[in-house]
Specification:
The complex is a heterodimer of chains A (about 800) and B (about 260).
Chain A lengths: L15 H5 L15 E7 L5 E7 L1 H4 L4 E6 L35 E2 L5 E7 L2 H10 L1 E6 L6 H5 L14 E7 L4 H10 L2 E9 L11 E7 L4 E6 L4 H13 L6 E4 L15 H13 L3 E4 L2 H7 L6 E9 L5 E13 L26 E10 L13 H19 L3 H8 L6 E2 L5 E2 L4 H11 L5 H10 L3 E10 L7 H6 L8 E7 L5 E5 L8 H13 L6 E4 L17 H27 L7 E4 L2 E4 L5 E3 H9 L14 E6 L8 E10 L6 E11 L6 H21 L29 E4 L19 H20 L14 H9 L1
Parallel strand pairs in A: 1-12, 10-11, 14-15, 20-21, 27-28
Antiparallel strand pairs in A: 1-5, 2-4, 2-6, 3-5, 7-15, 8-13, 9-10, 9-12, 13-14, 16-17, 18-26, 19-20, 19-25, 22-23, 23-24, 26-27
Chain B lengths: L4 E3 L4 H7 L5 E4 L5 H6 L7 E4 L9 E4 L2 E5 L4 H7 L5 H8 L4 H6 L2 H7 L6 H7 L3 E4 L3 E3 L18 E7 L3 E8 L6 E10 L2 E7 L7 E2 L1 H9 L4 H4 L16 H18 L1
Parallel strand pairs in B: 1-3, 2-3
Antiparallel strand pairs in B: 4-5, 5-8, 6-7, 6-8, 9-10, 10-11, 11-12
Classes of the chains: A alpha+beta (about 800), B alpha+beta (about 260).
Chain lengths: ~800, ~260
């Protein structure tokens, strides 16, 4: 029987009541007394020398308080990068300055040149239009190969090159991998593009800066997945505000998908301007502004070689990738095509030799950084696509070729640094075969054929590294931050609990799932547990939410803190019952002396902690509140197998996804309903990437897909009903809950499934020349591929 | 959005008078104009809303003619034209989304003449008459290329008269992002012959495919157009489809419209 509370129960999301009734409190809902508004003047050319900015006429317009330009920020720091990658040559990456407002040059359409702060938003916009920016337009570099060509215009002259770094992984395997591929009986090669995506969170970014002249404290309200990280980056590296004088609040946040991890210029601007003007300053992005200022995702161009023996056993993998950094290094940009990508190139398979080569390239485009999956979708896509192509070339069933190469003993040390602790890839594949009804495919294919439609089946696996990350490991790899998480569990005198967590919830449902864990540990109702997050003033240090880490890392910190609380509470209970501490057990909210009927309930112990009349004051402090930090011992490795069936209309090229099944191993699951929802959302985003989305620049660097008229977001009728299963659980071996993370899986696993299915449909339909189509598989592209 | 004056007259005569002011702009359902204003791409001094003019609303069928008020919303057409002219009702019911259909009007759509809009195809194929505050314009004289029509400055579409065809259907292939017509084909067969109007495809906007009309007049079956080839020259090419793709889709959608008619 399904549980109705605690770990494993599909408890309804308590936060949805306020989200669905318009009672959420988002950054744009925050309006402070005396608040002024900011409008940014942004570059309308991709590359140009900024010869001057004439603000005189604009500054005289009604309602204008002050106009800021790059010169105002000359004395403060640039926006920092949080990860330093070292290249094959031993040189650290090129890390050019990223000014808050453009200085000297503009480097992408949307680069902020000036900011008008005015009494009203309309006045600010009017004045922004009256600013005269004198820009000498320069030739732009948009295409990555063009950017690396000799004599190409330089995005950053001081770097001397558009190559940010040239990275090889594992470099010691380079020669052996080349040799194995040269000698292999069969090599399958695939050239592909992992399309650039615009994140499009439902809530656009917003920021409100506030300054208190009485205390000298600054406050930033912002749409962030990690307010403490913003406090550290902006305070220490940009504005020089010590952390104890800076509070960052990320209230309700309407989706992030990675795009709200990073520290953005607008956040630093409103904080700086609020202090300069001694007034609150507010900015909310317009949707078209989001497309030009939110960090984009993906944008890799890759050639992958897979060497196999005649029976389809993998011998070696070599990848050569160009990764677009855009015009500046966003906060975690260098980590995405390197350590979040190269380390996953083994996938679910035994491949003795792997070498990943990545050249990161500056272009005159919006910066590119982590987006749901961050490096792992790129790894999975190329691997699962090339395996599919190899299976076809060798005449081996795509499920069978994967089974032949599955890793089936754990722990498993991959040749790309990471060690998988646990998994069962045959089990998830078995489950997939059943829930996707692969046996019924042929019948469905014939039914489609009778309608003139080509049905195809795509199958693939994925693995990802979540729960990022062991700090000592990422430190060696160039991370400039630790990646632990912290939590404080505060028990009130009347027994209610507040958990202050560094994990941030922006759609994940922490306010529901975290109490399920605490309630289970103590045996009290979930309604007695409240989750507080998103405010540096009332939560301990937090690294935030990304990389599917909240439960695996933040949840572990919470469990650890709750464990300390329970240990102390047992001491109090032992005192109250005059028993030995070691004899006390806690069950169903009641402390019992083992082997007796003596007990005291949770509430009485909590009350004693705060009203310590009968209390061991000599040995124990009053109160019941504990903080814990948790730094994971390893990544977690969720994995799964996905299947998709499509119908392709050969007359129009239109692809309709008819069925989609996902068999995932997330380890233990706290709330199956929320996990289903995370998988649904992830697959929806993956389908979006595969069929609909793609940011397109023209040769001059104008964003052609700058609005929803041209940027195709997936809609409800683009996606099917999903069959989702996560019963094949192999619990994580190194965190207390045995959980692995589920937030990104769908977006990682699904793009190759869709593309594999479309290629399968075309192959079965007799279009044998079509072995690959680059995403998005729009009707026009599929039709053009059929035509050859 | 820049500041503007706003008036909401009750009659066509009052609206015409209001539009005589300098830099005045009629506002129908606002589904194109309001986003344009929000992006500060237009700055009319005065907006004259046509939304309160009762005489411009409604759908009526009589004597084989369907008359639709210029201010009638797509949702109203979808509902009220369903029995007398189902092909038109289905077209209206698939424009945009429910919010768009509840605001957007037939007069606004025809006056704007977006090259990807649906209504121009129906009007052209059904040989509609565009009735304005001052005259009647045969549809063959109405569309003048991209976003251009025979309307004079300040002229308001008050009604559209559709001779109801014996058989008709609209087949639309969606542009994946905007969901406007990448190619839309309206086919109408009446005693006067067959008319085929294509929207979305051509740089000059909606047009009649006369070769298909001739073929279908002889044999009103999908097979009749299978052998025809639309030339790619003059077709729109963008990231959603090349001129060749659009030209190809004109044939496919025409056959599908005939099959559905």
């Amino acid at each position: 029987m399904p549980k109705d509370s605690g770990i494993g129960a599909s408890v309804k999301r308590r936060e949805d009541v306020r989200f669905l009734t318009g009672r959420g409190r988002y950054t744009d809902d925050i309006n402070l007394r005396g608040q002024a508004h900011v409008a940014f003047l942004r570059a309308n050319v991709a590359h140009g020398r900024l010869r001057g900015v004439d603000v005189a006429a604009a500054a005289a317009m009604p309602g204008v308080l002050r106009i800021f330009t790059g010169a105002d920020f000359a004395a403060v720091g640039g926006l920092p990068c949080g990860w330093q990658v070292t290249g094959r040559d031993g040189q650290v990456m090129k890390e050019p300055r990223h000014p808050v407002l453009a200085a000297g040059k503009v480097r992408h359409v949307g680069d902020p040149i000036a900011a008008v702060v005015a009494e009203t938003l309309e006045a600010a916009r009017d004045a922004a239009e009256a600013i005269v920016a004198d820009i000498e337009e320069l030739p732009a570099v948009i295409d990555m190969r063009g950017a690396l060509a000799a004599g190409a215009p330089l995005v950053h002259e001081e770097a001397g090159t558009n190559l940010c770094f040239d990275w090889g992984f594992v470099e010691d395997n380079r020669a052996a991998t080349d040799a194995a591929i040269a000698a292999a009986p069969h090599v399958t090669t695939l050239d592909l593009v992992n399309n650039r995506l615009i994140p499009n969170a439902m809530e656009p970014r917003a920021a409100v800066g506030d300054y208190n002249p009485a205390t000298g404290d600054s406050t930033l309200y912002t749409t962030s997945q990690n307010p403490h990280v913003i406090r550290l980056l902006m305070g220490a590296f940009v504005l020089g505000i010590p952390e104890h004088k800076l509070r960052v609040v990320a209230p309700d946040v309407g989706g992030g998908f990675g795009s709200k991890i990073f520290h953005y210029a607008e956040e630093a601007f409103v904080t700086f301007a609020a202090r300069a003007l001694n007034r609150p300053v507010k900015w909310t992005a317009q949707r078209s502004e989001s497309a030009l200022s939110d960090a984009h995702g993906r944008d890799h161009v890759t050639r992958i070689d897979l060497a196999l023996d005649r029976e389809g056993h993998f011998l070696a993998i070599r990848t050569r990738t160009l990764a677009n950094m855009g015009a500046y290094l966003s906060t975690f940009a260098p980590s995405v095509p390197t350590y979040l990508h190269g380390t996953l190139m083994a996938g679910n398979y035994r491949t003795p030799l792997i070498h990943v080569g990545v050249q990161a390239v500056f272009t005159n485009t919006v910066p590119v950084d982590a987006y749901r999956g961050a490096g792992r979708p790129e790894a999975t896509f190329q691997l699962e696509r090339v395996i599919d192509k190899a299976a076809r070339e060798l005449g081996i069933d795509p499920v069978e070729i994967r089974r032949r190469n599955f890793i089936d003993r754990f722990p498993y040390q991959t040749p790309v640094a990471v060690a998988y602790d646990t998994g069962n890839y045959h089990a998830t594949m078995d489950k997939l075969v059943a829930i996707a009804d692969l046996a019924g495919f042929e019948g469905r294919r014939q039914a489609s054929a009778r309608k003139g439609l080509l049905r195809g089946l795509g199958v693939n696996c994925y693995i990802e590294a979540c729960g990022i990350a062991p700090s000592h490991l990422v430190g060696q790899l160039g991370a400039r931050a630790g990646l632990y998480e912290s939590a404080t569990v505060r028990v009130n005198a009347t027994g209610g609990i507040v958990v202050m967590t560094g994990s941030h919830s922006h759609g994940q449902g922490h306010e529901t799932t975290f109490p399920q864990v605490i309630a289970d540990m103590i045996g009290i109702p979930e309604s007695q547990v409240e989750i507080v997050h998103g405010d540096t003033a009332n939560t301990p240090m937090g690294m935030g939410t990304y990389g599917s880490r909240s439960l695996a890392v933040g949840g572990s910190a919470m469990v650890r803190a709750a464990g300390k609380v329970i240990a102390k509470a047992k001491k109090i209970a032992a005192h109250l019952m005059e028993a030995a501490e070691g004899d006390i057990t806690l069950r169903d909210g009641k402390f019992t002396v083992a082997g007796t009927d003596r007990s005291v309930d949770w509430g009485a112990v909590c009350l004693a902690a705060y009203v310590p009349h009968n209390y061991p004051l000599a040995e124990l402090e009053p109160g019941l509140e504990e903080t814990a930090f948790y730094d994971p011992a390893n990544f977690t490795f969720p994995a799964g197998a996905y299947a998709c069936e499509v119908e392709v209309d050969p007359e129009t090229g239109r692809v309709v996804i008819d069925r989609f099944a996902a068999a995932d191993d997330f380890g233990n699951v706290v709330n199956p309903m929320i996990v289903d929802g995370q998988v649904h959302g992830g697959i929806g985003q993956g389908i979006g990437q595969a069929l609909c989305e793609g940011a397109v620049y023209d040769a001059n660097g104008q964003l052609v897909t700058g609005s929803y008229m041209d940027y195709a977001m997936p809609r409800a009728d683009d996606v099917p009903s999903y069959v989702v299963d996560h019963s094949c659980a192999t619990p994580c071996t190194h965190n207390p809950l045995g959980v692995k993370g589920c937030g990104e899986a769908g977006a990682i696993g699904s793009p190759p499934t869709v593309v594999n299915a479309v290629i399968d449909a075309l192959q079965r339909g007799g279009h044998r020349h079509v072995t690959h189509i680059d995403m998005p598989l729009s009707p026009a592209r599929v039709w053009a591929a059929i035509r050859g | 959005m820049y500041a503007f004056e706003f008036t909401r007259p009750q009659t066509v005569a009052a609206a015409v008078a209001a539009l005589k002011g300098a830099d005045a702009q009629a506002l129908g359902g606002g589904q194109t104009l309001i986003p344009t204003l929000r992006q500060r791409l237009a700055s009319p001094a005065r907006l004259v809303s046509l939304a309160a003019i009762a005489e411009m609303r409604g759908v009526a069928a009589a004597g084989g003619v369907l008359t639709v008020g210029g201010g009638t919303t797509h949702a109203a057409v979808a509902r009220e034209a369903a029995a007398p002219f189902p092909a038109l009702a289905r077209l209206a019911g698939r424009i945009g989304d429910p919010a768009v259909r509840s605001r957007g009007t037939i007069g606004g759509s025809l006056a704007n003449n977006d090259p990807s809009a649906c209504y121009p195809a129906a009007a052209l194929a059904a040989a509609a008459t565009i009735v304005t505050d001052r005259r009647e314009i045969a549809v063959d004289d109405f569309f003048r290329g991209l976003f251009a029509t025979a309307l004079a400055t300040g002229e308001i579409i008050t009604r559209v008269r559709f001779p109801i065809p014996a058989r008709a259907a609209y087949a639309k292939f969606l542009q994946p992002a905007s969901r406007f017509a990448l190619v839309g084909v309206f086919v109408a067969k009446s005693s006067a012959g067959v008319r085929v109007a294509v929207t979305g495809a051509a740089e000059r906007g909606v047009f009649r495919w006369t070769a298909a009309e001739t073929a279908l007049a002889a044999d009103f079956r999908p097979e009749a157009v299978k052998g025809l080839r639309m030339a790619a020259e003059g077709m729109i090419g963008d990231l959603h489809g090349s001129p060749e793709y659009r030209a190809h889709l004109v044939g496919v959608m025409t056959a599908r419209a005939v099959a559905a008619a």
